UniProtKB/TrEMBL annotation:
Residues 103-169 form the Ribosome maturation factor RimM PRC barrel domain. GO terms for biological process: ribosomal small subunit biogenesis; rRNA processing. This is Ribosome maturation factor RimM. InterPro entries: PRC_barrel-like_sf, PRC_RimM, RimM, RimM_N, RimM_N_sf, Transl_B-barrel_sf. HAMAP family: Ribosome_mat_RimM. Its main location: cytoplasm. The gene is rimM. It is found in: Cytoplasm. Residues 9-88 form the RimM N-terminal domain. GO terms for molecular function: ribosome binding. GO terms for cellular component: cytoplasm; ribosome. Binds ribosomal protein uS19. Pfam families: PRC_RimM (PF24986), RimM (PF01782). Keywords: Chaperone, Cytoplasm, Ribosome biogenesis, rRNA processing.
Length: 175
């Protein structure tokens, strides 16, 4: 399995018990939907390795307590602390309406209320405090904030995202 075919689920943050159980900090708004998983991919080096789960359950809201089949003592658990966990993209719950996954909108066209077509989404930058669409129009890069105040409609069939950008923002890039 390749990372490109998966989504980031979370990271092993600590050991939980002397029997090898670990705690995983999940990167999700709905941790309860991952409570009964049978397996995950653990990032070890440059590889995603499948790990099978004997038991997993929520632990204090966004933490998941996992008992892996392959990890039954503290030393084995220590080897995976800090490792990232992934699941196949096919396991993402479907989103509807104006909600979307970042990987899902790459290639969508941004349609601004004032300027019309302002470019194709090439990437999503989520490393700063404000998440941004990175779009390209006529060889120029535009950075458009991802915000409920700006996004007015997501049309999956037409592969478009309708936006109402703040006055002057698009002009900064396309002038």
């Amino acid at each position: 399995m390749r990372k490109e075919d998966c989504f980031y689920l979370g990271k092993v943050v600590s050991r939980y018990s002397f029997k090898g159980e670990v705690l995983v900090k999940l990167d999700t708004d709905e941790p309860e939907i991952y409570e009964n998983m049978e397996s995950v991919f653990v990032s070890l080096g440059n590889n995603l390795v499948p790990f099978f789960i004997d038991r997993c359950r929520l632990h204090k809201s966004a933490l998941l307590r996992i008992d892996f089949e392959e990890v039954k003592e503290e030393s084995s658990a220590d080897k995976i602390i800090g490792s990232e966990l992934y699941l196949p993209l096919t396991m993402l719950p479907p989103l509807t309406g104006d909600k979307f996954y970042f990987h899902e909108v790459i290639g969508f066209t941004l349609l601004d209320e004032t300027h019309g077509d302002i470019g194709i989404i090439k990437a999503v930058n989520d490393s700063a405090s404000q998440e941004l669409f990175e779009a390209e129009k006529d060889g120029k890069e535009l950075l458009i904030p991802i915000s409920d105040d700006i996004i007015t409609k997501v049309d999956r069939e037409a592969k478009t995202i309708h936006v109402k950008t703040p006055e002057g923002l698009v002009d900064l890039y396309l002038q």
